[in-house]
Amino acid sequence: MWRELLPIGRHPDSHGYRRFAWTGADAECRAWFKAQAESRGLDYEVDRNGNQWAWLGDPGAGDAVVTGSHLDSVPDGGAFDGPLGVVSSFAALDELRARQVAFTKPLAIVNFGDEEGARFGLACVGSRLASGQLTVDQAHKLTDGEGISLPRAMEAAGYDPDAIGADHERLARIGAFVELHVEQGRALDLSGDRVGIASAIWPHGRWRFDFRGEANHAGTTRLVDRHDPMLSYAETVLAARREAELAGAVATFGKISVEPNGVNAIPSLVRGWLDSRAADQASLDQVVGGIEKAAREYADAHGIALDIVRESFTPVVEFDHALRDELARILGEETDITVPVLGTGAGHDAGILSGTIPTAMLFVRNPTGVSHSPAEFAAEDDCVAGVLALADVLEGLATS
Ligand code: HGY
Ligand code: MN
Ligand code: MN
Ligand code: MN
Q: What number does the ligand 1 atom closest to the CA of 204 have?
């Protein structure tokens, strides 16, 4: 199963994955999911927002136990972020069938579309649409780097962009959603555990900084006559690091676009995207506020016009305590080890849905701690431990 998925969307040079929403690689991943579902005799469906579901039992019965994750990636992402959760869900179901478990509730495996937001700039589009956190109008306005809108991209992939929208009735039939995910950090490696349970997701957001200056000749324009937006941008990036260190948070300028983007032209526009996250809202406000203040000072100093747009924001997610404790009880009984509970700075569909349905997450040890990079890794025996833990949890939840 894993080997069939591995080559899809993998870049030959970087060995990173480029599985962006509504592209060919995405279509191949979706075909893989459908084949896995149908080969197990599961009822396969695609919901109005393009999320894929594989059902065991009657979806209409309600109180369903759902597991799964996403198959899309960031640019040059790793092999595990998302796919590990989907593959482990199918493997856990195989394990439960081998145990001849008689489920008393419907079970489903889900692949949420466009979780990384790599193409259209907004994370968790599939789960945000389903839960009504992203309106149809907002979704229709999303465009990629080539100016292709989300509706056009969906249409080109054979999906109806006018069908999208909140899916409250579907979510109301779900009793619990448990997402297994590779850990994006080293807490489990440091504690020596194979599997952990998520406690919370840090508040985090994405801000776009538009620095507008004056295009001019790189060779003939005196330094004193320049209004170079690249300088204000560069100083802002350094300020972001300082502010994050002060607040014990993280701040990243990982994406930039420059116009006209010529080697011998002083830019007219430098557009930089900030991703910032912190353990609590006050710290996040402190970091972003400090960065914005510094950016405005630098822009003023160079005669640069600055616009700052908050493109997305996810408040702190405290996972459902009862479900989290139930997972700890089940795993404690089954594996007689205490499973550590840990927070994360990474966003997830389980986080987006936590305000709508009870959700929980299981993390699998990643000895490198690296994610959103081809260096992301999880050892086979840890992945197997994750599958068995997920199987125990699903058995506990779907037979209770
Ligand atoms: O950006 C995130 O935290 C998630 O991987 N989409
Ligand atoms: Mn990710
Ligand atoms: Mn992920
Ligand atoms: Mn996620």
A: 3
Read off the pLDDT of each residue in 349-358 and give the average, rounded to a whole number: 96
Residues contacting 285, CB < 8 A, separation 6+: none
CA distance 277 to 315: 10
Which residue's CA is minimally distant from atom 6 of ligand 1?
116
The region that residue 199 occupies, defined by phi over 0 for left and psi between -120 and 50 for alpha, beta otherwise, is alpha
Q: At what angle do helices 321-335 and 380-398 cross, to 10 degrees?
A: 120
What ipTM does this complex have? 0.85
Considering only CA atoms, which residue is closest to atom 4 of ligand 1? 347
- Check if the beta carbon of residue 31 is closer than 8 Å to that of residue 52: no
CA distance 312 to 318: 19
Calculate how far, in angstroms, residue 383's C-alpha sits from the geometric centre of ligand 3: 15
Mean per-residue pLDDT, 167-180: 98
Residue 106, pLDDT > 90, answer yes
Q: Are 164 and 139 in contact (CB under 8 A)?
A: yes
Closest ligand 1 atom, residue 345 Cα:
3
Cα 82 to ligand 4 centroid, rounded to whole Å: 6
Separation CA 100–CA 102 (nearest Å): 6
Ligand 1 mutation pick, 71, 73, 116, max ligand atoms within 8 A of CB: 116
